Amino acid sequence: MKVNIIGSGIAGLTAGLTLARNGHEVEIFEQFNRVGGVTGGMEAEGFEWDYGQLVVEAFGKEEFIGAILDELGVLDKLDLVHEEREYVFPDFTIRVPEEYGGQKWRMDFLKKQFPEDAAGLDAYWKDYVRFTRLLTLGGRMEKEGLSTKIAFYLTLLPFLPKLKWSAEKLLAHYFKSEKLKCVFMSILADFFTRPSQFPGLGIFTLNGEVTFEKRMPVQLAKNAVMTRFYSLIGGMKMLMNAMAEAIEECGGKIHTNCAIEKITVKDGKACGVVDQTGKEYACNQVIATGSAKKTFTQILPADVLPEGFTEKVLSIPLMGSVFMVHLGVDYDPSDVLHTVCTYFYGSYDIEGEVKRAQSGLYHEGEAGFVVHFPSLRSPGMAPKGKHALTIYTICPDKLASGDWETEKEKYADKLLEYAEQKMPGLRKHIVVKRIFSPVEFRKLTHLDHHAFGGLAPVMNAWKIPHKTPVEGLWFIGAQSESGGGVNNVLPSSFKTAKRIINGK
After folding, report:
1. What is the pTM of this model?
2. Closest CA to 27 of 11, 37, 13
């Protein structure tokens, strides 16, 4: 079987490698001069930065993504180190203790900060462990028998009343303190999703306790395998390059600087793609990644989709954008930055801040920002004696007033001003600065929005299915039904490729 894949981001490479390792002919078409898409990175004057996924999740061999990468033959080509994230709020900091505090150290810490919610924290922890077991059982259902399915549904029963709850409602069920609620929903700012619109049970997956403690055993509860965060030594390009090399070793082809302008459809079936030169590449199946709007309104013939499908595509909720400032500095900031990713929050009002950003108002960094410090674990990403930093925050894709092209320098200076309040002396140590506004990301990805995830995780929103209404055409990636982030896109792309192989 011959499969053509449009795009060489994490979705395209995962699907391509899965197909190639199973003996199928694969050709991947990338419009830029390198593989990786937004999961790649950039270099300048000896410094390297990622500009998509910054840390990865569940890459351990015993974890669900690590198991996929192991099956695909690339896990042993990656150098991984277990990572934590640090959260700095206006009144307190959540930091992994130097001395082991037990598997519930974060819960114990929060009880001291919020004694009025001690009972709620116990209830949350109980449900968290139960939910983790549910996810584990769900992953095993495909491989194990009836007893696993029974255990899954029995574990699911306590959650049935909460299935339609928003994150806002779920956390109100456990906690009284607005500040404590913010601890658990703060990461939602990254998703550009308001707590009132985010699926409540997703809170458990975003706040994995094991991710805060590298010494905690993976096996937290019986039959419940926890996931961890990892830094990829050398940056995300190491994963992308390893997958690309493996595809070519299997006989697959990757074309860079090759933009696809048309998907060929004959007798209702996708049967090829046409590049910018007019050259056609015939195939049995087509997999599209990247922009949903471009796929279904520009490169696919207008008359092959059912009535109303295009309107649905144009209505999918996309995340907003991010504003990034990549820095090369001539000092060591590890006295302030103890982990690769540090979150600094200036506001507890996640609902309000996301709502304002959605209206086109930019907080300039005052509401909070993230500092990524890759050279803490990967010294090769900066010249000797220097370090690479990325400071970023959520922002509107389009400003309510003004534009990013003319305002980006001003906004970069303002973001660095707020960052320096947390990192004294930062600006005097900058030797290299590269600004990435939504404009730069559009140039890089040809997407209307840059986001770490693409599709916003909004409750009850329609999602584009992997198997499209056009026979032989599949759609995967951050704007598909999987949603964004490597931990969503990679396994869904792997499973979609398996469906193609199995004729499903």
Report:
1. 0.92
2. 13
